[in-house]
Amino acid sequence: MRILVLSPHPDDDVIGCGGSIARHVEQGNEVTVAYMTSGEAGSPDYSAAELASMREAEAGRAAAILGVQRLIFLRNPDGYLDYNRKNVGDLVSVVRDVRPDLAYVPHHNDDHRDHMVTHKLAHEAFRSAGWAGFRECSAQPWHVPTVLCYEVWTPLGRVPYVENITPYVEKKIAALREHTSQIEKIRYDEGVRGFDRYRGVFTGKGEYCECFEPMTLPAGLFTS
């Protein structure tokens, strides 16, 4: 299988579905992560250019731990990600290039502006990528069969799909700790471990779990 993860900032991919990524890699699936921004607004201690470079390097080290094969940096402005024609077209190009069997995106109500815009862009891009009438990208149309929406800032109210990540949680936490610019003041690694444990206890699906909500895409526009 080919897996595509859309991440608003470096580290969101690890927080939301890092255990599932590690599981996919172990199963022999090819994983690509596309970052909508480089997270240059993520700390007041560095200049925007310096932090963007740092966070892309951190993403590379985290990806190496998880076994991710390919990273794409779209370099939109952190905190000002726009829902516009260009960004939809850029994502359509990514989708038609990667041709994923499964994609991961933040859920629609994850309480950060860039996360909500990423979800909205993804919804439109997945719809358009499978439509032969979208000609702004010349690559062949591709319909993504399954899209799972992950949680970062805001827990999902419903959790229709649960993945037991117990065998992969240490790798997930190790990958998250590579994002040193983010956890040096806020211990996201500790919060994520606790939250995944909470999901495991309350779903009863494993010791540590990640939860997802499937994205519903409109029917009738896709080519076979």
Strands, helices and their partners?
Layout: E1 2-7, H1 12-26, E2 30-37, H2 48-66, E3 70-76, H3 85-98, E4 102-106, H4 113-129, E5 146-150, E6 161-164, H5 169-176, H6 180-183, H7 188-203, E7 209-214
Parallel strand pairs: 1-2, 1-4, 2-3, 4-5
Antiparallel strand pairs: 5-7, 6-7
Helix pairs in contact: 1-5, 2-5, 3-4, 5-7
Bin the strand percentage: 15-25%
Summarize the amount of helix as a percent range: 40-55%
Output the number of helix runs.
7
Mean pLDDT: 94
User: What is the CATH homology-level superfamily?
Assistant: LmbE-like
Could you state the order of secondary-structure elements as H and E? EHEHEHEHEEHHHE
Distance between the termini: 18 Å
**The CATH class:** Alpha Beta
Q: Would you report the number of β strands? A: 7
